[in-house]
Design goal:
297 residues, alpha+beta, Ribosomal Protein S5, domain 2, Alpha-Beta Plaits, nine-stranded mixed β-sheet
Length: 297
C-alpha cells in the first residue's frame, strides 16, 4: 500500500468568448464568462525517487508525453520554489483533448494545487500563497490561472485576469464533441478572416448571459461539423441555450431539467463524445490523501 494524493481537474466551459483587439505583442485581448463542469480528469500523485508519468490507457483520450503539462507544472513549481521533491503521476483522463474544454490547462492547474498543498505542509514557515501558483500557472498557459480557481468567473485581458461571478446553478449541460481536435493557434489565425461577420450572428441568452463565441466562424471553417451540431442543438425541445466553447470543437446545450434530456441518437452521430451533467464550483482544499494499491501506478 502507498500513500498518494488525488485531485479532480474540471473541464472549463466558455459560456461566451468575445475576442477584442490585438495587443502590441500580437496576442488578442478577450472577455469571457466561464464555469466549470462536473466532467473531470483525475490526477493521482505520490512522492518518488524520480519523476514519472503514467496514464489510464483504457480511456479514449491519451495525452502526448512530449507535451505533458503535468510534468511541466511540476518542473515550473520546482524552479520557483527550489523544492527538490520528485513525483510519480497517474492521469485518468476523461476530458477530450483539443476540444475547447481546457483539459490540459485543468491538469496543469490541479497539479499546481496539489504541489502547493504538499509544499505548505512540508514548509510550515515558508508557505506558498495562492498568488504565487497563479503566477506560475500563467507561465504555463493563459487558461491555467482560471483553472486553478475553478469557479464561476469573468475573464479579461489575455484571459489571465479573473473576477468571481455567479451563474445559475439549477441547469444541466450537454456536451457534444465530434472527435475533431482543433488547435487554438490555428483557430485564432483564421479569426481575422471572419471577425467582421460576427456581429451578424443572432443573439442567444442564458438568463442574462449572452451566449456568443467570436471564434465560431473560424472554427467552423476548419471543422464544418460544428455547424451541423449547433443546428441539431437548436432543434432539441426545451433547449434553453446552445453554443460552442473555447476554440472548439465541443458544442454545448443548456436545459432546465432531467426530463428535458433529449434522445441523443435522434439528433447526433452516435460516434461523438457526449457528456451530460451540471456545473460546479471547486475548492482549493479538494486534495484527498489516501492509500492506493501499487498497481494503480
Amino acid at each position: 500500500m502507498t500513500i498518494y494524493y488525488n485531485i479532480s481537474a474540471p473541464a472549463k466551459l466558455n459560456l461566451n468568448l468575445f475576442v477584442k483587439n490585438k495587443s502590441l505583442d500580437g496576442l488578442h485581448f478577450i472577455e469571457s464568462d466561464i464555469c466549470f463542469l462536473e466532467l473531470t480528469d483525475k490526477i493521482y500523485l505520490k512522492f518518488s525517487q524520480d519523476d514519472a508519468f503514467h496514464q489510464n490507457k483504457e480511456n479514449p483520450f491519451l495525452i502526448d508525453p512530449k507535451k505533458n503539462l503535468i510534468l511541466q507544472a511540476i518542473n515550473q513549481f520546482r524552479f520557483h520554489t527550489n523544492w527538490d521533491q520528485k513525483f510519480e503521476v497517474y492521469l485518468d483522463k476523461n476530458i477530450p483533448i483539443g476540444s475547447g474544454l481546457g483539459g490540459g490547462s485543468a491538469d496543469a492547474a490541479a497539479t499546481l494545487v496539489v504541489l502547493r498543498t504538499l509544499f505548505n505542509k512540508d514548509k510550515n514557515n515558508n508557505k506558498i500563497p495562492l498568488s504565487k501558483i497563479l503566477e506560475i500557472g500563467s507561465e504555463l498557459g493563459s487558461d491555467v490561472p482560471s483553472c486553478i480557481i475553478s469557479k464561476d468567473l469573468k475573464l479579461t485581458g489575455y484571459g489571465r485576469e479573473v473576477r468571481r461571478k455567479k451563474f445559475p446553478s439549477n441547469y444541466y449541460f450537454l456536451l457534444i464533441y465530434p472527435n475533431i481536435k482543433l488547435s487554438t493557434k490555428s483557430v485564432f489565425q483564421h479569426y481575422s478572416d471572419f471577425k467582421n461577420l460576427n456581429h451578424k450572428s443572432k443573439k442567444i441568452f442564458f438568463e442574462n448571459i449572452i451566449i456568443h463565441n467570436s471564434l465560431l466562424l473560424s472554427a467552423t471553417s476548419l471543422a464544418p461539423k460544428i455547424k451541423d451540431i449547433l443546428i441539431n442543438l437548436k432543434e432539441i425541445p426545451n433547449i434553453v441555450a446552445y453554443g460552442m466553447t473555447g476554440s472548439g470543437s465541443t458544442c454545448f446545450g443548456i436545459i432546465k431539467s432531467l426530463e428535458d434530456k433529449p434522445n441523443l441518437g435522434k439528433f447526433f452521430n452516435n460516434k461523438y463524445f457526449f457528456w451530460f451533467g451540471k456545473k460546479a464550483n471547486f475548492k482549493l482544499n479538494r486534495v484527498v490523501c489516501s492509500k492506493v494499491l501499487e498497481n494503480k501506478f
